[in-house]
Write a structure and sequence with these properties.
The protein has 236 residues and is α+β, with helices and mostly antiparallel strands. The chain has 6 helices and 17 strands. Strands 7, 8, 9, 10, 13, 14, 15, 16 and 17 form a 9-stranded mixed β-sheet that branches. A 4-stranded antiparallel β-sheet has the order 3-2-5-6, with no helix packed on it. It has a two-stranded antiparallel ribbon with strand order 1-4. Responsible for synthesis of pseudouridine from uracil-516 in 16S ribosomal RNA.
């Protein structure tokens, strides 16, 4: 999701509910500050993380926000949905403003979902070339076989998209339980990969994205802010 930028006069007009022409004397008088410095250029571009003040009134605080949420099943990984609850619906209403998902989980999957208002950060995480591994715990209908490990490692042909998936890691934990590691996240990818081995996913739970591991103290539907170290190290 791209980070949005606005002209300063457009932003001020929206925030102060005045016409852009009425802003000219206000700017000329040095009554507007951006990141602590007087701003007089009405065409200046500002982003969501610039601190904007007018007559000491804070209009934009420039706060970057990063959250982890333990997604339950039956919740849509979207910001709005006409039929089902979304991950944003799980947050207090006052905490939802400006947030979007940095990667999705399908309707019946559970586990770690990241939310942020930082478009550049979320885009880095979502690009396969970023090299960020996502870790999932999966249970399946039939016993797992050593050849399944080789099939995941080789990549699989997805006919609909006309592509071969990147190599993935399959770690067998028990007869019908495994961990899967992916660097991409195509539509229902893990379910489709197991289907190609003749198996069916029963449960799918995302445990980690990069170095960020789902906090075990979070009950389904709960969230917390990422630590500064988690934000910095996740895509390092």
């Amino acid at each position: 999701m791209p980070t949005r930028y606005f002209r300063l006069d457009r932003f001020l007009s929206q925030q102060l509910q005045v016409s852009r022409s009425a802003l000219r004397p206000l700017l000329a008088a040095g009554r507007v500050r951006v990141n602590g410095a007087v701003a007089r250029d009405r065409q200046r571009r500002i982003g969501p993380f610039d601190r904007v003040e007018c007559d000491d009134q804070l209009l934009g605080d420039g706060t970057r926000r990063y959250l982890m949420l333990n997604k339950p099943a039956g919740v849509v990984s979207a910001t709005t949905d006409a039929t089902h609850p979304t991950v944003l619906d799980l947050l207090p209403e006052a905490a939802r403003e400006g947030l979007h998902l940095a990667g999705r989980l399908d309707f019946n999957s559970t586990g770690l979902v990241l939310l942020t208002n930082d478009g550049e950060w979320s885009r880095r995480l979502s690009l396969p070339d970023s090299g960020v591994w996502k870790r999932y715990r999966v249970t399946v209908e039939r016993p797992l076989r050593p050849e399944d490990v080789a099939a995941f490692s080789a990549g699989m042909h997805f006919e609909f998209e006309g592509l071969v998936t990147r190599p993935a890691r399959l770690e067998i934990l028990a007869e019908q339980e495994a961990r899967v590691f992916l660097q991409e996240g195509r539509y229902h990818q893990i379910r489709r990969m197991f289907a190609q081995t003749g198996n069916r996913v029963m449960t799918l739970h995302r445990e980690a994205v990069g170095s960020v591991v789902l906090d075990e103290t979070l009950a389904p539907g709960e969230c917390r802010a990422l630590t500064s170290n988690e934000v910095e190290q996740i895509d390092a």
